[in-house]
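From the thread on structure requests for the teaching lab: each student submitted one protein with a one-line request. Submission from student K.M.:

"Model U4/U6 snRNA-associated-splicing factor PRP24 from Parathielavia hyrcaniae, tokens only."
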Amino acid sequence: MANPVGEDNWVEFVDHQLREATDLEARVHVVETFQHATLAEPGSLKVWIAYCEYFWSLYTDCQPGSDAGWPAEDQQLGRETFTLDAALNLWQEGYEAVQYRLSDSHELWNRWLSLEMELLRRTATEAGVRRITHLFKDRLAVPHTTWDATSQMFSSFLSEYNRPAYESEMQQVTRNSKTAKRLYELRDQWELKLARAAKMHDTAALRTIMSEYLDWEIRLVKSKKDAKDMIANYKICLGLFSRALTGALASDEDTWLNFVVLVSTTHTDHKAGRSQVPSSLVPNMLDVLRRAVRHIPWSGPVWARYILTAEEVGLPFTDIERIKHAATDSAQLDRDGMSGVLDMYSAWCGYLKRSAMNPAASEEAVDVAEVGLPSAIEDVRHWGKRKYGEAYQGDPDYRLEKILIQFLTEKKDDIESARGVWEELSRVELHANSYDFWLHWYLWEMVVFSAARSKTRSPTPATLAQGLRVPTFATRVFTQALKVRTVDWPERLLEVYLKHCNDYELAETMREAHDTIYKTRKGVAKRREREAAVAAQAAQAAQQEAAQTDQPMTDVADASRSPGSKRKREATPSEHDGGNKRAKSETHAEQLKRDRENTSVWVTGLPKDTTQTKLKQFFREYGHINNIDLQKRDNSAIALIELGTPDDARSALLRDAKYFGDHVVQVTPATDCTLFVTNYPPEANEQYLRNVFKSCGELYSIRFPSLKYNTKRRFCYVTFRDRAAAAAATKIDGKPLESGKFKLVAKISEPMARQNRQGAQAEERELHVVNLPRGAGEEDVRGLFAKVGRVISVRVPRNMAGQSHGTAFVVMETKEEAHKAVESLDKLVFGNHPIKVEISKPPQQKITATTRAGSQEAPSQEQHHGAAGHRPAPAEIAARTIAVLNVPDTMTDARLRARLESASAGADLVKLVLHPTHGGAVLEYANATAAGKAALAVDGLEVEPGSGGGSGRRFRTGTAAELFKAKGERRVDRVDIPAADASSDSKKKGGGAAATQLMPPPPLALRRPAAQGARAGPKRGLGFVGGVAAAAKKDGEDAARKQDGVSNGVEQGAGGQAAGAKSNADFKKLFLGGGANAHGNTDGAKAASAAAADGGGGDGRPELMGRVSR
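Reply posted by the TA:
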């Protein structure tokens, strides 16, 4: 084994040598081999322990009186070579190399310490005690798994050798080791997982956990949150890489690349002065890459980095050439195909090009590049033919040819030879079918044309048009490209071709171009029709196969319907049907359910000014688009595009790496990126959920369901930017929230995997019994129904006092027994009560949600209704009731209440009734004062500050009557549905709704809260009018709507003049500020309070204020 790779191979290799070492020279050679091993595996615990143990054995064997049997001369030379200091220094060197291997570094340290203790016992000296004390202190300052055992060993050592200083030394160690213990506690969970996997000999789990652990350490190093731990975290990260790269991940390419990037980034930060890590701690890049290519010789990116780093540090040409030859001599470079070969050769050709194009380059460097670049292209071609035969067509990105073209163009000024390279590439089907290739060739020709304008001699032929020079060769690229009938995106070539001719060509060429474009477009249209027909056939076949596979799950009603029959149109639930009818989208969920998760793609790298229209044009020929979720970033944009079918989504992937304007975009599938999340706290909003999932990865969007037809919904769909983040999010499934009150559910969304309902109610085994005697208990009911069949369970609902409601739910064993019980026991007299027995039906979905105050469900009679205790009149309820408008139909009552409480509008809230179908809620407060203050606080309040969904949207306040006149928002999350339906109402109103969206109107009714304790009397404040008392006697809504004598919110006197000139802002400041102005004057507050108490009619009941016109 000439070149061992890996710690086990090195130990075996050296062990074979030392067994044959019988003289001093051979033993010295073994020591030299161990030195090579520590250079090849610098963080290997096995190599260092074997090395130190062997060197210690050499030290003991050459001592006088040893029974090793060495010749006297070898013993004498050995004592000079293998000294005690050299042995102890080697142990220390080994410990320093592995001390941050948290889980196993104690193996070497404990062995070293035992030797030190043995020497101390032989000759106990004060210096020896100090030395070992120092070793203990240094060890206890380093985080490691056996820290407690090390501390106990130190305690025993002090008790034996330095008892007087025991207390002071232990206190000092405890203080100094706080950081070490804290750093280990951060990693304890990872170490436990690794230990558990190792104990179970689960190699796959060990590799997975180690990879996740490394990613966590890298993020910790990059975060740079805690500067004082920066160096310690970096050391621990290097120690973990040592464990991984000498253990389970020694041959893992991703792990080596992570390590290389970490070291490279640290060197870059050092050069820029951004790193606090000492340069002595950072491994040498060449050493790291030298080790990497020995462990993963099939990795082209690692070989490419090796060549690039060698060039960067200034190694001579012969050394870099030796690296290149080592790569080509490796039998594993093409293990994963030609990508590794191309990566390595691209780095080599890049080095040759840069060496030759350097202004200070020698003629030899230019000659080497002139010969080496074509030679490299030929070597790769032969390599590919040898591996794949004639099927190999070269590099899809033609990287080596690009380098050669640049060298010929810029350094050699040999335009014809460079053009010859393009011509040769165009004869390869792989490149000829790519529009990207033809555009790159065209751009090169235009660069050559622009550079040649200033020269007397140009490679572009001249024309006869009065000396006008045109880019003929660039035009020829398009005419040649359009002859290829299999180009993947001919539409783009036609577009650029026409633009080019308009900008540069003569009339004759322009006419010919129009002819060519016209004929080509007809051919392309026919081609697209053929492709669409093939795709439709494939989709139909896939649907038939899926239908055959899913046939047992088909609904009976659907199965009975003829495939060609028309489905009757169903009525849309009206605003006044009480929500008994289900939404059309819910009633036929099986037919209309959108499989977003399997029909969506990501589009990244878009320009910032991207629009939905441009995206629809970009994917126009590749499938039907249902929806586009476009988000703008700092200098770019990203889109999540939902297509009609999974086949359309697969077709859209063909647009990957294509030009979108001047940008090359990436199109990737969005499968398994969305989670179905439920069982979170009811008041949780989007920001709360983002905080829950913030550690999993980049979160793209959160989609809440509409509550219009079921207000009990509490789930959402969380979409992540990639599958890895979504997979990480599923790992917190079952996470306890709010101190264990809720157990989060987070699973990959599968909309097509809907399951049929199960349970006694769905199986028609549950009975609902009504009009039971109040004294009847579970056993009484069970005995009655046991006569019909086997009773599984009985439940009798009771109130807070434990009294029965007179109803019961009985579950029978079979459906037949349940129906038999209905026939036998319905209308039976039981305890002098004729009972009603029927099959239990699921509760109707509620279209409203009501919450009440926990401690005060209704205002007290003494406070609001006097001693008579009469029920409040409708006008009184209206006086302390307001409506909140513009509430999203995805906002639950708990979220709305939490938002009101955050704005100090929920203190005296008695009842909240949410009406998603009307886009708002009715709020009833304890008194009119609280209602008025709440109206001022809520009006204009942002719905959900900081969240993506509600940012910028604001609440409005009004009356209950205004709320019930309003219609809820109609959200259409599709771009393929015409907007005419959604905007029909606004058209009827002359576009007023559109203006409202841009600038919401002020509240139609503004409430002025009455001050508590104000005196009653005829005095009226600003904004109050006479005659309100009469209005209060009418219905509450009429009293809230009709208030005479008010203009623009200001009371008019007899002559029509305004009674005052205070603005709405003055009122808001007056009442929210406690009733005093900046000068401490309370006259205005007193007047308003008196008016509020008087209410205009002298009956002490506050009324609604007048309307404020816009």
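TA comment: The two ends are 91 Å apart (CA to CA). DSSP finds 45 helices and 25 strands in the chain.
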